[in-house]
Write a structure and sequence with these properties.
Number of strands: 5
CATH superfamily: Beta-grasp domain
Strand order of the largest sheet: 2-1-5-3-4
Largest sheet: 5 strands, mixed
Number of domains: 1
CATH topology: Ubiquitin-like (UB roll)
Number of helices: 2
CATH architecture: Roll
Length: about 110
């Protein structure tokens, strides 16, 4: 199974094995990573699963949808060039080893 490493705002990290086609947000919540809120349940309606994706993986992700782009404009932590919503990132073999930094605040 491919894995992801989440870097929490406090600097701690958790590496999780995730089944393909599972969103990073769902995996984080299922494994008790409370820094990701996922208030809308993964429907890309709240931006409470904001992460910063390791640069070398950005070109392996699907393009940002118009909806995700709009939500990223209203995140509580600053938007960066590598900002994404973790609910919109589905695990795949191409993402094995991805590292994401959880944005400091989600509200």
């Amino acid at each position: 199974m491919p894995n992801v490493t989440f870097i929490s705002p406090d600097g701690s990290s958790d590496t999780l094995d995730i089944a393909n086609d599972t969103s990073l947000m769902r995996a984080a919540i299922a494994n008790g990573l409370h820094a990701i809120v996922g208030d809308c349940g993964g429907s890309a309606a709240c931006a409470t699963c904001h992460v910063y994706v390791q640069e070398k993986f950005l070109n392996r992700l699907p393009p940002i949808s118009d909806n995700e782009d709009q939500l990223l404009e209203s995140t509580s932590s600053p938007r960066r060039g590598n900002s994404r919503l973790s609910c919109q990132i589905l695990m795949s073999p191409e993402l094995d080893g991805i590292r994401v930094e959880i944005a400091e605040t989600q509200w």
